[in-house]
Amino acid sequence: MEKKELLYEGKAKKVYTTEDPDVLIVSYKDDATAFNGLKKGTIVGKGAINNRMTNYIFKKLEEKGVPTHLVEELNDRETAVKKVEIVPLEVIIRNFSAGSFAKKMGMEEGIKFLQPTLEFSYKNDDLGDPFINRYYALALGLATQEEIDAITKYAFQVNEVMQEYFASLNIELIDFKIEFGRYHGQIILADEVSPDTCRLWDKDTHEKLDKDRFRRDLGNVEDAYQEVFRRLGIDK
Ligand code: ADP
Ligand code: UDP
């Protein structure tokens, strides 16, 4: 599979067309951004880790019945994926208070919820990905009721699978963001799951093993990504 044309360059990945109109190649970069692009940097080795971690977890999710865009890992940084029309909703699941939730609710971080939460942001960089609910999404035609139902079902399923899997690595899955797309009329999981898009804490020490180390200048950013990758046990 060969890259043809650069279709889109985002903050963390480049997306290329291929000779197959149904298949794209995503290429993961080491670039890191936070606060809607205001903070920029590099996390050496991140692209390969996020690529391989996403593919490893997407395979597990497929086995558990969650359809994903994964076609084939091509190399450390590049993966062939099904070309979808991205549903412009960032789907955020939380198991513990953290980040914007903790701030909004005046809570400290790390409080376990009675049950997981789900929220949507409208995927729009110019507006800073504002929080919206399903009625906004329906009113604005961002997704249909059936699509939102499928997205909600899959998102909680992804949480179940990932929570259990990370627990086996002594990692607490605090929260995460996922994106879905339309592929021949079906909703499938797209984009990535990585320390860029998940909050991952060591279960014993509560050490942060994710992008908050970059966002909050906590140091040892590369080490945290490497540590998650090491625990996954997928390095050859
Ligand atoms: P951003 O656009 O937020 O800067 P990235 O740098 O990760 O993010 O860019 C990747 C882009 O590709 C995102 O806009 C994402 O929604 C999109 N994308 C992810 N998977 C697919 C797919 N299978 N088909 C089409 N687009 C995808
Ligand atoms: N997240 C993400 N991309 C975004 C916004 C959030 O991947 O554009 C992830 C983030 O890494 C965290 C979860 O979604 O795991 C919840 O983020 P939150 O709403 O608390 O926002 P933040 O504090 O990161 O601004």
Low-pLDDT residue spans: none
H/E element order: EEEEEHEEEEHEEHHEEEHH
The outline comes out as globular
Mean pLDDT across every amino acid position: 97
What percent of residues are in strands? 25-35%
* Biggest sheet features: 7 strands, antiparallel
Helical residue percent?
25-40%
CA gyration radius, whole angstroms: 17 Å
Distance, first to last CA: 23 Å
Instruction: Report the structural category.
Output: alpha+beta
Number of strands: 14
What does this 3D model show about the protein?
With 236 residues, this protein is of the alpha+beta class. The protein is built from 6 helices and 14 strands. It has helices at 46-63, 99-105, 134-139, 145-167, 212-215, 221-232; strands at residues 6-9, 13-17, 23-28, 31-34, 39-42, 70-73, 78-82, 85-86, 89-96, 112-122, 131-132, 171-183, 186-190, 198-202. The strands form 3 sheets. Strands 8, 9, 10, 11, 12, 13 and 14 form a 7-stranded antiparallel sheet that branches. The protein has a 5-stranded antiparallel sheet with strand order 1-2-3-7-6. A two-stranded antiparallel ribbon has the order 4-5. Strand 12 and strand 13 form a beta hairpin. The longest helix has 23 residues, at 145-167. The protein is globular. The mean pLDDT is 97. Adenosine-5'-diphosphate (ADP) is lined by residues 8, 10-13, 15, 24, 69, 81-84, 86, 179, 181, 190-191.
